[in-house]
Structures are given as C-alpha cells and as structure tokens.
C-alpha cells in the first residue's frame, strides 16, 4: 500500500529553509520539480503524510535527518553511460591529455563512483592511468564510502559490458572486476590513483586545477542561478584549454559561462575552455 | 475543452504507430505544446524523432535539453534515460533518479508534473502498453482538473496499460485512436 504523501511548493520552501537553518545544507537553488518529487518520495518511505510531520521529524530526530539527506540526493549512476560519450573521450580528449606529464581529472558529483571507474578503465587502455590522478567528489558521504570500496552491483554488469563494447572497448570487460555473490569489485590496480572527498557544489570552492572536469547529470538538479555558480567554479578550476564534460542533455547555452567555452562535440556535450 | 495549453501523450509497447497517427492529425497551427513520453531502450542511438515525424512535413519534434523553455506549436519527446519534469515557470527539468515501473522516462512522472504545472489546461493521453505506468499520472491529471484520455483497450496492440488506467480511474475518457485524433484536431484555441 502506497502512502499518499503530498507537499505544496510553498511547504517545500519551508522544508528547504528548515534544513538550511538547522543543519547548514543549502537546497535553496535546487530545481523545484525534481526536489519536490524527492521529498515526497522520502515522505512515502518514512510514512510522513504531511509537511508538518516531516518538519517535526527533521527538527527532532538527527538520525532521521541523516537518512533524509542521503535519500534526498539522487544516487543513480551507470558505468559507461552514453557509450558515444566515452568513445569521444577515447578518440578526441584523451589523446590531447596525453601530452601532459601528469593529468588531473575531477569527477564532480561522482555518486557511487561508476563513472570514475569507467574513466579509470579508459585511462588504463590508453596507457595514461599511471600518470593520472582522479579526484572524485560528492556531497553525500555514504556514496563516497561505497565508491571507496569499488563495489558495483553485479546485476547491472551485463548492461555495462554492452555499454563498454559500444564505447569502443576491446578487452574482456570481466577482466576489470571480480564477481563475488551479488557484487562486482573493480580490481584495485584500476582504483589506485583515485581520491574521494566530500565537496558540495552549492557551497564549496576551488580546490585544485584540472585538465578535465566531468560533471554529468548533476547540474540538472540545480536552478539557473546555482548552475551559473558551478560553471564559474569549473571555469576557475580548469587549466588553460581544459575540457569540461556535461550530460547528454545538459547544455552550456543556458549558462552565463557559454562565451568562455568552445564546443568540442555538440552531441556528447564536451566543451573546452577558451583560455 | 477551451484553453488547452499542453497535450501529454504516454505510450509503451504498440504505441508508436498511434503516436505517429495523432501527430499527423494535429491542426496546422496548433497553439498548444505536445509532450511525448515513450518507453524505449537506453544507451543506443535513436532516430525516434524522425520516425514519429513520419510523412508530416514541417513538424518540429525535439528531445529537449534541461532548462529549455517550453513553447507552443512544438512537440517535445522525452529523452532516453531521463525523467521529464516541468517547472512552474514552464521550463523543462530533466531528472536521472530511479526508474518508475522499470521505466525512465516514466509516464507517471511526467503526467504528475504536467498536472501540477498546467492543472485544468492539460490533456493527457495514455496509449497501448504492457505495464501499469501512467495510471497514477492520469489520476493526478484528473484531480487537478485536467482531461484524461485512454486508448480503448480493444484497439490497443497491448491492452494492459490502458486497462490498468481505466481500472484505477473512473473519470477517464475511453476513445479509439481515430476519435482521439479528431479530438486533437479540434483542440486549437
């Protein structure tokens, strides 16, 4: 039996305000349509019927709050999602990065790490992994804990293998992991140059300089205002002529930063800093 | 119905020929917006927009980007592997959260969002399919004062989806594809 929870957009603002005031997480510039859906989903899971009940729980129960924040952020990801994107990385971007003695890549909003593992495999296959450092950040500590373990649910591996092959991979995909019970563990040698850390795109600052930033399907959860903030942050975090990769349906066209980038690949949404 | 701003069409198995037929039937200068949600494969290249446009020349079918402003006289197709939502300011908001009824895009997700954004200015049409997606969404459309149309299961290649919606909602209008087409033709302001 599904619980019929509902909150209005006005009540959503009250929840956002309460979370910011009491716990310091700022969802003020998150896109409302998806945030409202997520909040209602959390309410259904926890049995809260009204905004009043939810506010009561959030105010009085720290354990509930921790669960709420972890469930509120979208933690869905895939290995080699959009194979055409990874093909473009392999053929166009990585050969350019190869000219650097050391390569630094930032995965912003890495969730449980699937895209970072995909990148590490690509770098391995192009001979660059040993001189690359991958920084993977997310605001959700539970995601990072999972990502550090290198564990991917085995049930998705068939899809991921098909993605990998479509992306131009020619090795046996199974050579990259060990299957154990319900999970696949990505071999340690492909994870040795990965650094995981918490970073909140809504509030935190520049922490390093990168030749490539991947932030795919994260900006869709932000409104224009926050998207602009993050684009400035990326722009300031990119090395000269550095690359920026967004999701297949995320466009720089709607951002104030569009004049600072050239389009490398319009279909796979890879951009390059002009300066 | 007067003042219709949006027609949202959801379909799964067996719905593509019907969607193409409905698009052919749109009036020449329709003022409303059409949003199509189809269950389809992810991570493969797709020419669905071209297939749906069919023989009708001049129709604009686009898979929108996130934050795109929704306009009239346009057909939007929900992109593969995203849920499609609509913000209060009538811009597209894409979402990559868990599938609903094993589906992303999910028809329920878009219908519920359309119901909230357009209320009684919305028409939702649910077509052939083998999955209960869309039934909850139509409930939301009706509760906000919009109009819910279901393809007559007897005419559907896969009747499970329209039947699920009929079982769940008393206030749906059950029509054959031909009747839906002629209804859409009269829908212009």
From TrEMBL, chain A:
What does the record list as coiled-coil region(s)? none
At the top level, the lineage of the source is: Bacteria
Q: Which GO terms describe its biological process?
A: methylation
This protein is called what? Protein-glutamate O-methyltransferase CheR
List, alphabetically, the PROSITE patterns matched: CHER
Task: Identify the Pfam families for this entry.
Answer: CheR, CheR_N
Record keywords = Methyltransferase, Transferase
Q: Which SUPFAM superfamilies match?
A: Chemotaxis receptor methyltransferase CheR, N-terminal domain, S-adenosyl-L-methionine-dependent methyltransferases
Keyword S-adenosyl-L-methionine annotated: no
- For the keyword Manganese, the answer is no
Automatic annotation (TrEMBL), chain B:
Describe the reaction catalysed, as an equation: [protein]-L-glutamate 5-O-methyl ester + H2O = L-glutamyl-[protein] + methanol + H(+)
Organism, by scientific name, is Larkinella knui
Biological process according to GO: chemotaxis
Specify the CheB-type methylesterase domain's residue ranges: 1-166
Q: Which GO terms describe its cellular component?
A: cytoplasm
EC class of this enzyme? hydrolase
CDD domains xref list = CheB
What Gene3D superfamilies does this protein's entry cite?
Methylesterase CheB, C-terminal domain (3.40.50.180)
Under Pfam families, the record lists: CheB_methylest
> What protein name does the entry list?
protein-glutamate methylesterase
- Which first-to-last residue range defines the signal peptide? none
As recorded in UniProt, its EC number(s) are 3.1.1.61
Q: Which GO terms describe its molecular function?
A: phosphorelay response regulator activity; protein-glutamate methylesterase activity
